[in-house]
């Protein structure tokens, strides 16, 4: 009886004090002079940031206005980032609203289903009219405790397309969130926020207080009954997205990377945690580079490794097919190598060991309609092949500025010297020519190589040849075949590769140093490149063009997909009859350097 009475008295006293305090504030309201100037300055800065970035925030609407999400423009051409799960139900064309109150037509460009990212393009109302866009920042600079802004269209409230703004803390960085079914929607190295995001915010931007885009909001922990945010949200880091942007702009349905082996932490709770390779696939590149079970992984892509969680976070931010430096310990020896990464998503394999063609649906999909439909072209393996052709043709146009070879499709005669492992200055000559068939059409192509007195002959298009013949000379991995493909690219372009001629996105490339010295770290060799993928007679070639000036820096030719390619690095370009050609080629195969060709005499005959 007493305790309730005491509790009542205390409650009454608290209420009375609160009432008196409230009355005091009402009687004497705070003036601007009474507020710490730093608080007012921070408020004004926050408002300025919101005003600066708001025009770039996109409201995305599904078919018939049902459902939708958010996005953010990243360049003046109208390309915008959002989530894969936002566009998944909308189809390849959609409607998007901007804070200017205008509804725009938009088309799907690229997809990253594993990472839950999509790139779309808004169509301007007037040809050439630029869009407002957000500047991408460096998400690796984000720290727990930093302030952040989330903007978007929660609960589809923005009927006038004006985004909702929320403000909060970055709660953690380098978080890992497991995929949601079939390996999709895996959030690696993501940013955890308490900045409120709710259904409809998906795909919207996360900004730092410098008005820089640092993430794309995607997942959150929600109350299951009311679907209200519980204070834990996750944004895909913009640095991860940057790794995939070249693929997304090229309309590729991308895949994430895996090493091809199982890694586990040993003594994770102890003081000497070690990340160890437990098993490895025989056909993966890491095995060919020398990695074996029980090897300790120390560093990958410049980041240290001690736990399985760190490994998943790091490997998960890169696309399939990239080569990245891996440092590992075998016994007492510390080694560094470049590893080509395998794909994350499982692929069906046919009886010949090649990727099976996707099953075609019994009922064809209804083709998209509207103004954006003209910018959509379906093709297996691509989210929108139209944009792949746009990227490919732009790359080729820039490359052509270094020289037009279309008129010199006759015999090529090249002479010079070769530095081989056991001899320097060995004479070398190459002849590549096409013979006419009796009906006047192109017949067989022949390549003749004389290397230090050893003569080799190859018909690269002859059917039924075994891999050893195509890899001539021995130890090169296919130098003669590589020279044939090089001539095909320069003189015939797309016509020289009937099986495949597509843009392959962006990748890092690692040309050896011109002076022959080994680098301190392999990452010091890295040059970011645009990639062209070609295929002729089941031989795949990957071409690397500098992002800086579109110079062809080198290429890789695969005689067999499960083996190492012949790697060709091109140096010392000089004009030859008005066309730039390399004076030096370095050839590598597997873990070995085959040799360096010094080519000082080109004779390129005109097409007959």
Summarize the helices and strands and which ones pair or pack.
Elements lengths: L1 H26 L9 H17 L3 E5 L6 E6 L5 E4 L1 H4 L5 E5 L5 E10 L4 E6 L12 E2 L10 E6 L11 E14 L9 E7 L11 E3 L4 E11 L6 E9 H12 L7 E2 L2 E6 L7 E7 L4 H4 L7 E5 L2 E2 L3 H8 L7 E8 L2 E8 L1 E2 L41 H16 L11 E9 L2 E14 L5 E10 L2 E5 L8 H4 L8 H14 L7 E10 L17 E10 L2 E8 L5 E7 L7 E11 L2 E11 L2 E13 L4
Parallel strand pairs: 7-12
Antiparallel strand pairs: 1-2, 1-4, 2-3, 3-6, 4-5, 5-6, 8-9, 8-11, 9-10, 10-13, 11-12, 12-13, 14-21, 15-16, 16-17, 17-18, 17-19, 19-20, 22-23, 22-32, 23-24, 24-25, 26-27, 27-28, 28-29, 29-30, 30-31, 31-32
Describe the 3D structure.
This protein is of the alpha+beta class and 608 residues long. Among the domains are: 108 residues, Beta Barrel (Thrombin, subunit H), CATH 2.40.10.10; 87 residues, PDZ domain (Pdz3 Domain); 193 residues, outer membrane lipoprotein receptor (LolB), chain A, CATH 2.50.20. The protein has nine helices and 32 strands. It has an eleven-stranded antiparallel beta sheet. The protein has a six-stranded antiparallel β-barrel with strand order 1-2-3-6-5-4. A six-stranded antiparallel barrel has the order 8-9-10-13-12-11. Strand 27 and strand 28 form a beta hairpin. The radius of gyration is 29 Å and the shape is globular.
| Radius of gyration using CA atoms only | 29 Å
Give a quick account of the main beta sheet: strands, pairing sense, barrel closure. Answer: 11 strands, antiparallel
- Residue windows where pLDDT falls under 50 for at least 5 positions: 1-18, 348-364
> In percent terms, what proportion of residues is strand?
35-45%
Proportion of residues in helical segments? 10-25%
* Mean pLDDT, all residues: 88
Structural class: alpha+beta
Number of distinct beta strands: 32
CATH topology of the domain at 412-604: outer membrane lipoprotein receptor (LolB), chain A
CATH C-level of the domain at 412-604: Mainly Beta
Shape: globular
CATH architecture of the domain at 412-604: Clam
Q: How far is it from the N-terminal to the C-terminal residue, by CA? A: 112 Å
Instruction: Trace the largest sheet across and list its strands.
Output: 25-24-23-22-32-31-30-29-28-27-26
Assembly classification: single chain
How many helical elements?
A: 9
């Amino acid at each position: 009886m007493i305790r309730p009475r005491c509790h009542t008295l205390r409650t009454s006293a608290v209420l009375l004090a609160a009432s008196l305090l409230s009355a005091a504030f009402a009687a004497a309201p705070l003036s601007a002079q009474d507020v710490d100037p730093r608080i007012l300055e921070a408020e004004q800065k926050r408002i300025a940031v919101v005003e600066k970035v708001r025009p770039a925030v996109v409201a995305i609407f599904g078919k018939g206005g049902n459902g939708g999400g958010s996005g953010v423009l990243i360049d003046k051409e109208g390309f915008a980032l959002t989530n894969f799960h936002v566009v998944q139900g909308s189809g390849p064309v959609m409607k998007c609203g901007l804070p200017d109150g205008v509804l725009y037509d938009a088309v799907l460009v690229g997809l990253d289903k594993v990472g839950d990212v999509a790139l779309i393009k808004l169509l301007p109302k007037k040809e050439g009219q630029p869009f407002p866009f957000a500047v991408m920042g460096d998400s690796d600079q984000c720290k727990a405790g930093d302030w952040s802004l989330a903007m978007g269209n929660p609960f589809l409230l923005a009927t006038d397309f004006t985004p909702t703004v929320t403000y909060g803390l970055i709660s953690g960085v380098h978080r890992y969130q497991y995929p949601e079914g079939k390996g999709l929607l895996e959030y690696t190295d993501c940013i955890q926020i308490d900045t409120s995001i709710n259904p409809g915010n998906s795909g919207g931007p996360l900004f730092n207080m410098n008005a820089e885009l640092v993430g794309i909001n995607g997942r959150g922990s929600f109350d299951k009954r009311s679907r209200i945010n519980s204070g834990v949200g996750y944004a895909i880091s913009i640095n991860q997205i940057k790794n995939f942007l070249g693929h997304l702009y090229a309309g590729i349905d991308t895949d994430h990377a895996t090493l091809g082996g199982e890694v586990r932490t040993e003594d994770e709770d102890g003081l000497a945690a070690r990340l160890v390779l437990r098993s490895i696939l025989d056909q993966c590149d890491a095995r060919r580079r020398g990695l074996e079970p029980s090897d300790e992984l120390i560093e990958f892509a410049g980041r240290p490794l001690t736990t399985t969680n760190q490994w998943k976070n790091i490997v998960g931010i890169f696309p399939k097919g990239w080569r990245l430096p891996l440092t590992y310990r075998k016994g007492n020896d510390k080694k560094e190598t470049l590893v080509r990464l395998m794909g994350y998503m499982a692929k069906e394999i046919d009886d010949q060991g090649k990727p099976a063609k996707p099953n075609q649906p019994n009922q064809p999909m209804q083709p998209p309609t509207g103004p954006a439909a003209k910018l959509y072209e379906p093709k297996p393996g691509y989210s929108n092949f139209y944009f792949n052709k746009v990227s490919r043709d732009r790359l080729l146009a820039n490359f052509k500025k270094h020289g037009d070879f279309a008129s010199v499709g006759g015999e090529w005669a090249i002479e010079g010297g070769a530095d081989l492992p056991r001899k320097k200055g060995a004479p070398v000559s190459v002849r590549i020519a096409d013979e006419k068939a009796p009906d006047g059409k192109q017949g067989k192509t022949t390549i003749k190589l004389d290397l230090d007195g050893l003569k080799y002959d190859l018909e690269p298009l002859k059917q039924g040849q075994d891999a050893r013949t195509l890899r001539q000379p021995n130890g090169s991995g296919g130098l003669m075949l590589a020279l044939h493909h090089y001539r095909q690219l320069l003189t015939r372009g797309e016509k020289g590769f009937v099986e495949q001629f597509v843009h392959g996105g962006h990748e890092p490339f690692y040309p050896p140093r011109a002076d022959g010295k080994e680098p301190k770290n392999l990452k010091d060799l890295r040059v970011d490149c645009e990639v062209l993928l070609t295929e002729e007679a089941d031989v795949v070639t990957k071409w690397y063009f500098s992002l800086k000036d579109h110079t062809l820096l080198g290429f890789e030719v695969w005689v067999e997909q499960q083996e190492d390619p012949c790697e060709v690095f091109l140096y010392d370009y000089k004009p030859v009859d008005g066309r730039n050609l390399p004076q030096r080629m370095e050839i590598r195969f597997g873990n070995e350097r085959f040799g360096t060709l010094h080519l000082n005499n080109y004779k390129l005959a005109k097409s007959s």
